# Entry
Amino acid sequence: MALRMKAENSLFVIVDVQERLAPAMFKGEEAISANVKLLQAATILNVPHIVTEQYPAGIGGTVPQLAAHMSKENVVEKMSFSSMEEPAFVKSLELSDARQIVVSGMETHVCVLQTVLDLIEKDYQVFVVEDAVASRTAKNKMLGIERMRQAGAQIVCAEMVMFEWLGVSGTENFKAILPLIK
# Structure
């Protein structure tokens, strides 16, 4: 098992960053900003992504600032809290052929947690982006992060992901991603 994230081995999964859910999140705007930067970096580095939406008819679609950067064909609607319970998600996951799954989204202690636990159970190497996840309370976020860590997820930040995906400086990709880091 590789200890560092590699762009060519990664899939970026954004869980339920939705219009009617995001405003209720503790420091939700910071998480949204980190998600936007990560999605832009993933696009530059050809890292595939899946975006889930929990019951969009009731909770709304993905927030506009993130939706502007994502591929609509990569959106998976779901009703179950774990994305792994949705056949369309599992199919997209398997088609990606990725073994390193970088996960972000809302809520940390519910849909993100259940998705991560199920991914770990299926032997994926999971990286949870701490500054790109949110819950309604700081305590719920902290408890979700701690449980995922205990289950074997690696807890990282958006900059770790971007720099590990890059691997080297001085390239065109580095120059393109540098403004996202500054």
About this structure: The CA atoms of residues 129 and 157 lie 5 Å apart.
